[in-house]
């Protein structure tokens, strides 16, 4: 993996697959090792309501087919601080999913950092609509980050 050292706001525009940005506290990466994927599974189980039953094989497949960023503890490469992913057609639509910060790191600015870094990714630069679905208690978290609640008939294939 290529490690890049530079200011994060510049580097994240040009971060290619398998490249990371590192500072004293955390590494920002768009590639995860097997151990880190296991750590991600633990966070899904512990810190989300929607991802508790996910398994290793399916999550690996998911990671191959979406774009994501993870914050890793720079002193312990196994430990994921936070994770978020998105699907984007790079022009019209993008959806953000699975925004999660590990319990012990919550309330320290990592969620905000994660969303701001995600929004700087190349594939989101010219997209007409960047959307996400969240629960009522998280609406104000996203409002602070520039999102607005919209009336929607979200439909799900059953
Ligand atoms: C939601 C979550 C990602 C926020 O991450 P975090 O690292 O705890 O949040 P931050 O410390 O970066 O907070 C950023 C700002 O949002 C505010 N905030 C954090 N959680 C909030 C909440 N639930 N409601 C309202 N505001 C919130 C903080 O006070 C902070 O405000 P400030 O910028 O004025 O200081 C995290 O709590 C989490 O992973 N929760 C469990 C999974 C989840 O529900 N994810 C969202 C699903 S869409």
CATH class assignment: Alpha Beta
| Tally of individual domains | 1
What is the overall pLDDT average?
A: 89
| CATH fold topology | Aminopeptidase
Structural class: alpha/beta
Ligand inventory reads: coenzyme A
Overall shape: it is globular
Order of helices and strands: EHEEHHEEEHEH
In order across it, which strands form the biggest sheet? 1-2-3-4-5-6-7
Largest sheet: 7 strands, mixed
Uncertain spans? none
Number of strands: 7
Determine the CATH superfamily.
Gcn5-related N-acetyltransferase (GNAT)
Strand residue content: 25-35%
How many DSSP H or I helices?
A: 5
Notable characteristics:
158 residues, alpha/beta, Aminopeptidase, seven-stranded mixed sheet, 7 strands, binds coenzyme A
In short:
The chain has helices spanning 8-11, 34-47, 56-64, 110-119, 139-143, and strands at 2-4, 19-22, 26-29, 67-73, 80-88, 93-101, 129-132. By secondary structure, it is of the alpha/beta class.
Describe the 3D structure:
- This protein is of the alpha/beta class and 158 residues long.
- It has one domain: Gcn5-related N-acetyltransferase (GNAT) (Aminopeptidase, 3-Layer(aba) Sandwich), CATH 3.40.630.
- The protein contains five helices and seven strands, in the order βαββααβββαβα.
- It has a seven-stranded mixed β-sheet.
- A hairpin with a 3-residue loop joins strand 2 (19-22) and strand 3.
- The longest helix has 14 residues, at 34-47.
- The chain is globular, with a radius of gyration of 15 Å.
- The termini are far apart.
- The model has no long low-confidence stretch (mean pLDDT 89).
């Amino acid at each position: 993996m290529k490690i890049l050292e530079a200011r994060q706001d510049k580097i994240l525009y040009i971060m290619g697959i398998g490249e990371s940005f590192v500072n004293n506290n955390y590494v920002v990466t768009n590639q995860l090792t097997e151990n880190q994927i296991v750590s991600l599974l633990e966070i899904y189980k512990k810190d989300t309501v929607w991802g508790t039953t996910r398994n290793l094989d399916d999550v690996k497949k998911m990671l191959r087919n979406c774009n994501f960023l993870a914050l890793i503890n720079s002193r312990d490469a196994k430990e994921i601080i936070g994770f978020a992913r998105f699907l984007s057609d790079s022009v019209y639509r993008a959806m953000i999913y699975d925004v999660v910060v590990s319990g012990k790191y919550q309330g320290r600015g990592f969620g905000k950092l994660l969303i701001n870094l995600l929004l700087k990714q190349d594939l989101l630069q010219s997209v007409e609509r960047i959307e996400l679905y969240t629960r009522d208690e998280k609406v104000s978290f996203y409002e602070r980050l520039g999102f607005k609640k919209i009336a929607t008939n979200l439909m799900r294939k059953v």
